[in-house]
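chain below, 218 aa
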Amino acid sequence: AEKISVSVSLDGIGEYHDCQRGGFKKVEKGIAILQDSDVSLAILTTVTERNLSGIPQLTRYLMERQLPYRLSLFREMDIKRSEDHHGLSDFNSKVIQKLHECYDIIEECIFDMEVPFHKLCDIEVIKKRQRNCGAGNNSITVGHRGQIAVCQALLDNPVGTIFGENDALSVISGQRIFPFQDYFVDRNSECSGCRWRYMCTGGCPFLTVAKNGSFNSK
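prediction:
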């Protein structure tokens, strides 16, 4: 009734989802309920070494069910752990190989069905953007325990819960931990001269700040 769209985390079919999050059957049931209720729905998939092999299978699954989705490569928000780049280039080549398989499936489906919306990471080639996502602005992340976070990558650092006195919108608009209003690509001097800045928007602002201490950096 309020025209709110819902994004559901689904990292693969069966064991590929369960190895990262668990509860595939419950997630699948929830997706069916949302579709039957005509709720605007999108799938968010986090790609890691654990579920990479199952991404082509997931692509076909989503195509057949006409589910729009976004593939996001996993980004380590813990800086101490993310500094270890051993094996990263090998993983990147495997990702590219699997993405080729995914896009072959999408190309195959084009002739048989209307292909649902798809996005890769935070790249946008259709329109200009100042920010790469709606974190803290027009989106709310709710964890399975009711915790409210600015971003799904920050569920371990919630700004409130759905069980508090304030509603979820007030919790997000009232939080001051993450000043989302500061994260616009044109305010980043490192990006201001780049011709692609409105397509990548400077990347994830929280990751940039965590790695470099400031959003004003690459």
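The chain has a mean pLDDT of 86. The two ends are 41 Å apart (CA to CA).
thats it, cya
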